[in-house]
Write a structure and sequence with these properties.
The complex is a heterodimer of chains A (377) and B (312). Chain A has 377 residues and is mainly alpha-helical. Chain A has 16 helices and four strands. Chain A folds into two domains: 236 residues, no CATH class; 114 residues, Periplasmic binding protein-like II (D-Maltodextrin-Binding Protein, domain 2, 3-Layer(aba) Sandwich), CATH 3.40.190. Chain A is elongated, with a radius of gyration of 26 Å. Chain B has two domains: 221 residues, 3-Layer(aba) Sandwich (Rossmann fold), CATH 3.40.50.300; 66 residues, Alpha-Beta Plaits (2-Layer Sandwich), CATH 3.30.70. In chain B, the strands form three sheets. In chain B, strands 6-7-8-3-9-10 form a six-stranded mixed β-sheet, with helices on both faces. In chain B, α3 crosses α4, α4 packs antiparallel against α5 and α5 packs parallel to α6. The chains are: A mainly alpha (377), B alpha/beta (312).
């Protein structure tokens, strides 16, 4: 087994295309991200943002909204109380992110484009709306303190959207999510390494596979030793990327270093397993299989937030099952959970999800690889 | 002579095609058996079926007296295979490639190192040990392919068209190497569509076409299957119909063909056919460039059995 393991390592470390995609490409992408986000980062740190509230009669009469929104003013946003025309002008001039207009009991939200502040505004209105029936009864009692509701909403806002005081005491940054997704993408690219190694053990995948299949070395020994070697190569790539992100780009991974390492190990395992699954499940050319892994990984990375946190948030909110099944999101979310949350529940959920994904890939692969004779080769 | 391989009623069907049709044959200890046939005749499918890589539709395969299955590791240990396509790792050097594949058979490092050196010597790659496959010519690459398949000193070797697209020097080297393997005690099954190689190399030949055995035997036995005994070829321009019809009347002539520059005359039997032809041409003062006589080839046998050339 060691003989096969040793030569698989040699072969993989000398495969230029693999070295590029696994080692160099994520680092290059990281540099681009850093250049692209460094200015954005300064501009886009979560801050108290400007909105307008149309100060009409409907707003004045809507006591619940009025009290809660007043409580949140200067904490989450700074509100200007203006007429509808003035609010429209402010929005046009981009002096505010959005405005609220009350026509009857419920407010309408007006924004120019989607974004994190617009999402927060929508979140607040939805939260107040959900509590309205309860508040209607309580509000009848004189002296009710609406700041409790506002605090409740802010607490939920902290945990669900972005907490305002992260554990590492650095400035809140939501662009780190792109770098976390980059690690997830690199981990899943480990699939190309697993694919490369396993393909050379299967008789129906090429001449080297045929030659390996007629040797007295058991297929299980071939596959397992190659899988372990692939995992080590993929893990090396992830380690280099994370060291680069930490020391060069200064990406903050929070303070739980052991958990970060654990997540890197498990994420890479999931990526390598995906490669083994693609190697054993698809009967197409080697290049086509590589294409499948790269395309799937890129797509899943985008869904997990590589091109902006908004898409991740939208999917988490509207299609939660999509990201629950998305291994890139599991890895991204794991780092995210370590960085933003005080508890590890979400982190462990991601770890278990990744392990389940890995086990599923390996079970399906082992069933497919166990086949000993082929209809055609 | 003891049979090393016994194939009985082997059939391999694809959806609408019988790639192998009820093949039965044996490979005897110490011989070089040639599987001769045009491309697509079922040679590679036969080898892949014998090696248990392919699912077969029916039939049985015994190697070294035991049934061959994918998990017959004791049998596999004694087999070496050189596939038609080069099967090496581009990222490993010549030496590393041979060491890798040899290591899948032999764990003892010292013994392996000795075997690798012998394999390198056999195929003449002594000066290329540290070269990567991409740095090798087509012929050298084929030699490496062979070394990877035989370095572990197998008792039974399958060589599937190992000389395709190889330069003459490498081809000679490869054929000499195969003879040495046989002389060292290996039993060899050699597939090719080059009849010249079969004639040089093989003790017995099986002629395959469309998955069926057309004929088998020693080369002399196969040549007896054809009606002709001698073939005379003359390079001559603008031979008139009168002369051609006169030649047709010669004693023992079987067939005659002329394409405007080359005249081929086959004879059923007899002696002095070439002398008679030279005398005739001289008497008629017909100028010719070259004239030579041949014994019938395996191609003639194949032509007679199938009505087509071996390389069609």
């Amino acid at each position: 087994m060691f003989h096969n393991f040793k030569y698989t390592l040699k072969t993989l470390f000398r495969t230029k295309a693999l070295i590029f995609w696994t080692f160099a490409f994520p680092i290059i992408l990281g540099l681009f991200f850093n250049m692209a986000f460094s200015n954005l980062e300064n501009d886009e740190k979560i801050k108290v943002f400007d909105i307008a509230i149309v100060n009409n009669q409907a707003y004045e009469e809507n006591i619940i909204y009025k009290n809660v929104l007043d409580e949140l003013n200067d904490k989450v946003y700074t509100a200007k109380y203006v007429s509808k025309e003035e609010a429209e002008t402010l929005l046009e001039d981009r002096q505010i992110y959005g405005y609220l207009y009350f026509d009857g009991d419920n407010p309408e939200i007006y924004v120019r484009k989607s974004g994190i502040y617009q999402t927060i505004l929508k979140f607040i209105i939805e939260e107040v709306e959900q509590r309205k029936n309860v508040l209607n009864n309580i509000a009848l009692k004189e002296g009710y303190n609406f700041s409790n509701v506002a605090e409740d909403i802010m607490t939920k806002l902290d945990s669900e959207v972005l907490t305002l005081n992260n554990k590492s005491n650095s400035n809140l940054s939501y662009t780190v999510i792109e770098f976390y997704t980059l690690i997830a993408m690199a981990a899943m690219y480990g699939g190309t390494i697993g694919l490369n190694a396993i393909n050379s053990s299967l008789a129906n995948m090429g001449e080297v596979g045929k030659r390996s299949s007629i040797t007295p070395t058991k297929k299980s020994v071939l596959v397992i030793s190659k899988a372990i070697a692939s995992y080590i190569v993929a893990l090396t790539g992830i380690a280099i990327l994370m060291l680069f992100l930490y020391f060069v780009i200064h990406v903050d991974f929070g303070s739980n270093l052991l958990y970060v390492i654990l997540l890197a190990f498990v994420g890479t395992l999931a990526g390598t397993s995906l490669g083994i699954l693609v190697a054993s499940a698809f009967k197409c050319s080697h290049d086509a299989k590589i294409g499948i892994i790269i395309a799937v990984t890129m797509f899943l990375s985008v869904l997990a937030g590589m091109m902006g946190i908004t898409l991740k948030y939208v999917i988490d909110t509207n299609l939660p099952f999509v990201n629950m099944l998305n291994p890139c999101n599991m890895i991204t979310d794991g780092f995210y959970a370590l960085y933003y949350y005080n508890t590890l529940n979400r982190f462990w959920f991601d770890i278990v999800s990744l392990l389940l994904f890995t086990i599923l890939c390996l079970i399906i692969s082992s069933v497919l690889i166990r086949r000993e004779k082929y209809d055609s080769i | 002579m003891k049979n090393i391989v016994e194939v009985k009623n082997l059939t391999k069907e694809y959806k609408n095609l019988k790639a192998i049709d009820n093949l039965s044959f044996e490979i005897r200890k110490g011989e070089i058996l040639g599987l001769l046939g045009p491309n697509g005749s079922g040679k590679s499918t036969t080898i892949n079926s014998i090696l248990s890589l392919l699912k077969t539709s029916s039939g049985s395969i015994k190697i070294f007296g035991s049934e061959m299955t994918p998990s017959s590791y004791d049998i596999k240990r004694k087999i070496g295979v050189v596939f038609q396509e080069v099967a090496v790792f581009n990222e490993l050097t010549v030496y590393e490639n041979i060491d890798y594949f040899c290591g899948l058979y032999i764990e003892d490092k010292k013994l392996r190192a000795k075997y690798i050196e012998e394999a390198i010597q056999l195929v003449g790659l002594e000066n290329f040990k540290k070269f990567y496959p991409k740095q090798l010519s087509g012929g050298l690459l084929r030699r490496l392919n062979i070394a990877c398949g035989i370095a572990h000193k197998p008792e039974l070797i399958f060589l599937d068209e190992p000389t395709v697209a190889v330069d003459p020097q490498s081809r000679n080297n490869i054929l000499e190497g195969i003879k040495k393997l046989r002389d060292n005690g290996a039993t060899i099954c050699y597939t090719t569509h080059y009849m010249e190689e079969v004639e040089i190399l093989c003790d017995r030949v099986i002629i395959l076409d469309k998955g069926k055995i057309l004929a088998s035997g020693t080369i002399d036995e196969l040549k007896q299957l054809t009606n002709i005994e001698e073939k005379v070829t003359i390079e001559v321009d603008n031979l008139s119909d009168k002369y051609i019809s006169e030649i047709t009347e010669f004693k023992n002539v079987d067939t005659i063909s002329y394409n405007g520059s080359i005249l081929v005359v086959t004879y059923k039997k007899g002696k002095n056919n070439l002398t008679d032809m030279v005398n005739y041409l001289n008497n008629k003062k017909i100028k010719y460039d070259k004239i030579f006589s041949e014994r019938p080839t395996l191609n003639d046998v194949f032509l007679e059995l199938t009505g087509k050339e071996l390389r069609d």
